[in-house]
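Batch manifest line 177
LIGAND: zinc ion
JOB: complex structure
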Amino acid sequence: MTLLDIIHPDNPILRKKAKRVTTFDKKFQALVDDMVETMIEAPGVGLAAPQVAVSQRMAVIRLQDDEKSKEEFGDLAGKLYVVVNPEIVKTSKEMVEGVEGCLSIPGYLGTVDRFEKITIDSLDRYGKPQRIKAEGWLARVFQHEIDHLDGKLYIDIAKEVWEVRPEDQDDENVVAE
Ligand code: ZN
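JOB STATUS: finished
ARTIFACT:
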């Protein structure tokens, strides 16, 4: 497996609407594996293909599996999701405010309103349809990644964005997406 380079907003691929995936060949499987490895190494809880300069509608998501995360998320901690051509088919009425970071915009965090609960229809890495229901932090990560597939970044919709000073890093429990 290979660690991939994560691109930043100076690269126009990050701002493009990504293309639907139609091929689930060996090359695509290798991309999925490389993205999972890159996300975990970063470390991050989500990574969308455009962030590694591949303009395709695919993202990987995995909440951390450390003790704190297990306490908070139970079985969802460490569970890997691969979504291909995802569509949000249902949302809650409630929006919740939360803090997000992005692997493509290192050193910054922002406050963003997201739907509290969502239902996503997508294909898995082999092209099989799957429906995922997510809420809270997991729903937030999905919304952040799906935005990436449309060339949108959290800073576009954040109410506030701030720079994280290295000495503050221990106080911030947010993992980038
Ligand atoms: Zn991001």
